[in-house]
Amino acid sequence: KQGADSINPLVVEQLKPLAAAAVTPEFLRTTTESLINGVFGWLRGETVSPKFAIRTDVVKANLQNNLVQYTKNRIASLEVCQKGTSYDNFDPLATPCRPPQSISDAEIKKYVSDMIGQIPIFSKPEITLESLGASEAFAVDKPIQKVPQAYSFARALPYILIFIIIACAIGLIVFSARKKSSVRAVAHTFAWAGAMLVLFSAITLIF
């Protein structure tokens, strides 16, 4: 059967740029956003597991178009095969010569489509946690479900620490005999705590 297993290793190296070109900047941007939003939605407790969808149909279409054009150019650049050459299991990407009769665009497209169809990542139009078979790892009784709780505590921890600092500063005023120096120290503490509060608030809004 024709397919990726029969491709000449030298040709595979030439195909890598075509595969890389199929992954557009827009695809990388939307994929990154989907993964980040899915993971942080889970960490915030909005979902029981990370929810994301990576569309592969666009990359598949780009790759197919690139491979079809590459295959056409490759065949056109080859010398005609000598008489008596066997064309059993003919592979346009591995053959060192081309048959005397022309190969139609429909045949090339079918060959490329069959080859790409053997790549598991393109078996479905999108990749999700469920399609990867990893959804069971996020069941409610699994240890990983403690991660969102730890994340929530980590987000609240800076506020708790700032509250403790402010409480200690107030206690310093109440119990200190040198009120003037204590008030000055407390003012610095409040300024520092306020700055930290603004910083942590900005960070938690982002994450």
Structure description:
The chain has 207 residues and is mostly helical. The chain is built from 6 helices and 2 strands. The protein has helices at residues 9-22, 25-43, 57-77, 105-117, 147-175, 179-206; strands at 54-55, 126-127. It has a two-stranded antiparallel ribbon. The longest helix is centred in the C-terminal third of the chain and has 29 residues, at 147-175. The model is unreliable at 1-6 (pLDDT under 50).
Give a summary of the structure in a few sentences.
This protein is mainly α and 207 residues long. It has 6 helices and 2 strands. A two-stranded antiparallel ribbon has the order 1-2.
Please supply descriptive tags for the structure shown above.
disordered N terminus; 207 residues; mainly alpha; two-stranded antiparallel sheet; 6 helices
Give the SSE order as H and E letters. Answer: HHEHHEHH
Q: Please compute the radius of gyration using only Cα atoms.
A: 31 Å
Report low-confidence residues grouped into runs of 5 or more: 1-6
The largest sheet, given as strand count, sense and whether it forms a barrel, is:
2 strands, antiparallel
Structural category: mainly alpha
Name the shape in a single word: elongated
The total count of helices amounts to: 6
Give the helix level as a range of percent.
55-70%
- Strand order across the largest sheet: 1-2
Q: Count the strands? A: 2
